[in-house]
Design a protein that fits this description.
The complex is a heterodimer. By secondary structure, chain A is of the alpha+beta class. Chain A is built from 14 helices and eleven strands. The relative contact order of chain A is 0.19. Chain B starts with a strand and ends with a strand. Chain B has helices at residues 46-53, 76-86, 102-107, 117-130, 146-158, 176-192, 204-207, and strands at residues 2-15, 18-31, 35-39, 61-66, 69-70, 87-90, 164-168, 196-201, 212-217, 220-222. Classes of the chains: A alpha+beta, B alpha/beta.
Chain lengths: 382, 223
């Protein structure tokens, strides 16, 4: 502790440089933590899917639908307990920026299969009894200031974009866990079917299987059955489906990690440069300290601690700044990242990086301090 | 018995393939409590000799023994610890840390000891009192005159009660009045506190304050 003042005065002697370096580390770690939290949110969303639910979709792409006639054949597959289906609606409210996940569901079979959407029984019954009714997540209700019983008009980005679709909110659900998401919008399949002139068919089927161990055999049995059909199928566990759905715009994890690494190295150079400049300016003082008896090891540690203090300070600012910001704004990535949060594990990684950054950035100037020739340095300043 | 013994000391600088001898086979003894002045023209190797005695530079050949310990045989780590315990160094340009107050500058050598904060405070205040700056303890170097800065540097040099004080042109950057005050202070350290001092200078008036004068010129040391 007796050396703390020495570190502190060195940190504060060039306040502008210290503040700018600290802020650049803070900005980099804010970005890193944000990107890392996107990855963990995607991973969590992928883990939400039930082990006993499987998804059968068009083998070409999720954007192609499947015939309604497949239903009876799917129900008959050994190991399948029940079948339901849904379709992507692409609903927007008022403005295309007010986008959220909206699904038309075969409600009588879909809701029993998804107990993670929790709502009062009377609301569920009210929803079931009305053709234009909707179930809305509590987060979405809050986002738009909707209330139970309100009629809201949506437009679809897929079906007749100019047409307004009125829905009456009859139920509000709470997710069983944050990663399920609280910004979903569900309505009756029949409503979509009728309003598309009876041309709409299921976007995908959901199969409830009796035992998770049967997943592989069920997937094989289903896909073989439709192999020579007009619409070939691809059947996979819901978790695999969730992951592929969430990452259909690219390998987000790799992308985010690459950006994170680039940010890390950029900021490493900034911090190292600042530390080397600071150390070079103080070469004469280091020589004086050596004359007074300060040993190489002590000087090495003092320089490293000084570097780490800057990066840890920046790290605390960036990491906890991100935590406060995302917690405060309840960021959910417009519904794409349900359960998005800056986890403590991410914070720990961020702070670990901050410490490592300081140690690596301080290594060169610390080593230079120990190698500094005292006589030569003092001669230069005399 | 001499406090400082220098035996057959040589220093040769190597510039690329060219060898530049500074001095060769120097012998010197300084007794405990002696105030020796080393004079010589610029480039004669006075500062080099001082740096060698303090273990800040390595001789080409020869040995330096201080208080029975061979400085020239010590490792870098041992030298640092030895300097902390036995050497007080006074520079021409004071070399105070500008971000530290007079008190904090004087305290620096004591950070390397096991003294408590309270004990360090007692030592620092005593040192500042000896150099007549106890009322300037909280002043930063930029708030002090050159003479006062040098007195703080002397306070720093004596605070750990070193065996040997090495002063390299301590009045070289001062006006006549301040220089006189510094030299008086050094004389006092020698006479009242029995400090062994080796003062390097090319100023005849400064040299007259010492008990003995030696000259280093063209690599030869003479009385």
């Amino acid at each position: 502790m007796k050396y703390a003042r020495l570190v502190w005065v060195n940190l504060t002697r060039n306040k502008r440089r210290t503040i700018l370096t600290t802020l650049s580390v803070a900005a980099a770690l804010f970005l890193f933590v944000s990107l890392r939290s996107v990855v963990t949110a995607l991973e969590d969303a992928g883990d939400v899917g039930s082990e006993t639910r499987m998804i059968t979709r068009n083998a070409i792409s999720i954007v192609f639908v499947l015939p309604e006639a497949y239903y009876n054949r799917l129900v008959a597959v050994p190991g399948v307990k029940s079948v339901t289906w849904a379709a992507w609606f692409g609903g927007v409210y008022r403005d295309p920026r007010d986008w959220f996940a909206s699904l038309a569901i075969k409600a009588d079979s879909y809701l029993p299969m998804y107990p993670e959407f929790i709502m009062p029984d009377e609301q569920r019954e009210a929803f079931m009894a009305e053709r234009t009714a909707a179930i809305v997540g509590s987060g979405l209700m809050e986002r738009f200031g909707w209330r139970l019983g309100q009629t809201v008009n949506l437009r679809s980005t897929i079906f007749a974009p100019d047409q307004e679709w009125p829905f009456t909110i009859r139920a509000v659900y709470e997710p069983s866990e944050p990663a399920v998401g609280d910004e979903w919008f569900f309505f009756h399949w029949e409503y979509l079917y009728e309003n598309t002139g009876g041309r709409m068919t299921p976007g995908w089927y959901v199969l409830q299987i009796e035992d998770p161990a049967l997943a592989a055999s069920v997937a094989r049995a289903v896909d073989e059955q439709f192999e020579n059909s007009r619409a070939r199928t691809r059947t996979e566990t819901e978790r695999a489906f969730q992951t592929s759905f969430l990452t259909m715009w690219g390998n987000v994890g790799v992308l985010v990690n690459v950006i994170g690494m680039a940010v890390f190295f950029a900021i490493l150079l900034v911090a190292a440069n600042a530390m080397i400049m600071a150390a070079r300016e103080r070469a004469a003082e280091v020589a004086v300290l050596k004359t007074l008896g300060f040993g190489d090891r002590l000087l090495f540690v003092l320089v490293l601690v000084e570097a780490a203090a800057i990066t840890v300070g920046g790290g605390l600012l960036g990491v906890f700044g991100a935590k406060l910001f995302f917690d405060g704004t309840e960021f959910q990535g417009a519904g794409f990242l349900p359960g998005f949060e800056v986890k403590w594990a991410t914070i720990a990684i961020g702070m670990g990086i901050a410490v490592a950054l300081g140690l690596v950035a301080g290594l060169v100037p610390a080593w230079q301090a120990t190698r500094l020739p005292v006589a030569g340095t003092l001669r230069r300043v005399a | 018995m001499a406090l400082l013994e220098i035996r057959s000391l040589s220093k040769v600088y190597q510039r690329d393939s060219q060898a530049i001898p500074v001095f060769e086979n120097i012998d010197l003894d300084i007794d405990t409590g002696e105030f020796l002045v080393l004079m010589g023209p610029s480039g004669s190797g006075k500062t080099t000799l001082l740096n060698l005695i303090a273990g800040l530079d390595e001789p080409t050949t020869g040995a330096i023994i201080v208080g029975g310990e061979e400085v020239t045989a010590m490792s870098r780590r041992q030298l640092a610890a030895w300097r902390s315990d036995h050497v007080g160094f006074i520079f021409q340009l004071y070399n105070l840390l500008p971000v530290l107050t007079a008190y904090q500058n004087v305290e620096l050598p004591l950070l390397l000891t096991h003294l408590s904060k309270k004990e360090r405070r007692e030592h620092v205040m005593t040192a500042l009192d000896v150099v007549g700056l106890s009322d300037r303890a909280d002043h930063f170097p930029r708030q002090l005159s050159g003479g006062q800065e040098q007195r703080v540097a002397i306070g720093r040099a004596i605070v750990s009660d070193p065996t040997l004080i090495l002063a390299d042109e301590p009045t070289g950057d001062l006006d006549a009045k301040s220089a006189d005050e510094i030299l008086t202070l050094m004389q006092r350290l020698n006479r009242e506190f029995d400090k062994t001092i080796l003062l390097v200078t090319h100023d005849q008036r400064a040299a007259e304050r010492g008990e003995a004068i030696m000259h280093l010129d063209k690599g030869v040391l003479t009385r």
